[in-house]
Amino acid sequence: MHDVVRDVxxxxxxxxxxxxxxxxxxxxxxxxxxENSKSVRRFSLIKSKVxxxxxxxxxxxxxxxxxxxxxxxVNIPNDFFTGLKALKVLDLKGHSGILPTxxxxxTNLRTLCxxxxxxxxxxxxxxxxxxxxxxxKQSSLDVFPVEIRRLTNLRVLDLRLRRSHQYSSYxxxxxxxxxxxxxxxxxxxxxxKSFTRWEVEELSRRSFANLAExxxxxxxxxxxxxxxxxxxxxxxxISPLQNLMNFKIEVSANTYDSEPSKARRLVVDxxxxxxxxxKRIGSWxxxxxxxxxQLHLKNWKGLQNVEQLYEEGFNPLAWLHIFNCGINIICSSxxxxxFVCLEKLTIKSCSECEVVFLSDNHxxxxxxxxxxxxVSFRDLPKxxxxxxxxxxxxxxxxxxxxxVKCPKLLKLFTPMYAKLLKRLVLLEIHCCEGMVTVxxxxxxxxxxxxxxxxxxxxxxxxQLEILMLSDLRNLTSLIQPKILLDFPSLEWLRIELCPxxxxxxxxxxxxxxxxxxxxDRTWFEGLEFLDETIKNCxxxxxxxxxxxxECNNTN
Length: 555
Known about the structure:
By secondary structure, the protein is mainly beta. Helices cover 9% and strands 22% of the residues. The chain is built from 7 helices and 31 strands. It has helices spanning 3-13, 211-215, 283-289, 415-420, 445-451, 521-525, 532-540, and strands spanning 20-22, 42-44, 64-66, 89-91, 96-98, 111-113, 118-120, 133-135, 140-141, 156-158, 188-192, 222-227, 246-251, 265-269, 294-298, 319-323, 331-332, 344-348, 355-358, 374-378, 385-388, 400-404, 426-430, 437-440, 458-460, 466-470, 477-480, 484-486, 492-496, 516-519, 542-544. The longest helix is centred in the N-terminal third of the chain and has 11 residues, at 3-13.
């Protein structure tokens, strides 16, 4: 906003008729003088540098006070809030130290935000009986205020705290028992990674809160929580979070930095799993799996496929990430119809995985997996096939394919699959020492091709922009039998450590948009070209690579 426009807006808003007192962003060092305090309804001192406040504010009609003075606040006098009995919204961003005792005079206060502060003796918060929203995001506490249990009108609670030097590890941070269960009106609760220790079983004597307390909140619609004990995943609760619609729940002994997301997210890390799979997951987990949009399964050696996890399917699921689990296939092809919304699939470090998609009947619906746009397969030492017997139409909307460290994979897909990948934008293959060709026919692939009208003279990848091939020591061709490949949208081509690859079967229209070609000069000069114009085009974009062992640097 232009300075003149801003000043005019502030002047209008600050007139008596509007009841605004705005001193935001002016970096004031002294508390402003107010001539008619009785008319002020909203007062803003955001980003000011006031280092001293009056002993008492007398603003009988003030509804909202935004201070946000952070590190510049020396202290707030004890009687400061005494004359603000009508106050409903208070923002004390960055406040550190002991809260003034006069804050308990704010009997009409509905919203209190103290972000990025450091609070001591926060028990006085329990005096704010009418509070509906309490946010202490990124603040630190010396002691958890059990008095919060008295805030029975609370609807939103944000305790995603900043770790304090008081706590040597996450194990030290706990919620006392019988606090959460008293907040019967709570609709949104954000605990993040601040409180990870929760009792799972019902015990007569407890030192910290039980997860059943959280599950008992009938009005809860939003929850963000981290739980260390994975046994909670197999526990039933009387009230299994039936109304929960938005959630980020992490069941793990470790804490992970997850990317920001508004999706309904569930992370399950069975770090200490001995290999067995209990017969039935808990009632609350079954409820949430029906609604989960991002599912992360980690270190679960007893999980052989996702059908074991939940037989009723994952219809809203958009992202599925599987890491270091015992799966040998994702699921049967019949079960694929339960992934109607799946967009992204990642499988990494699963030592038993041999086939990702395996057909168990010949009537696979072509409408399956039509939302799937991204697949990534990394560090799968036994993988021999990605899509075996599945109708290639199922994968026609793929935009991104990555295959890394799959030493037994001899090829990526058949020409029939390649023919249908018209939306593919990025293809990368790294460190697959067994791969001989990227594309080749199965024994019955020709029959499938003719039955579906496949023209085997040329394959076009109309949208492919990036093609990266590295450390494929036994790769002899891109496609068998030899068919021309056209990449009319290709912008970046990178080929390294592929010593046996002697020919690139590029069609005449392949490289019209190529702007970058990375390769080893000696390898490039030894290539055979069917068309000299292709060689000249690649020469114009050539950038020599200097590399060591590629797989050592590939995630």
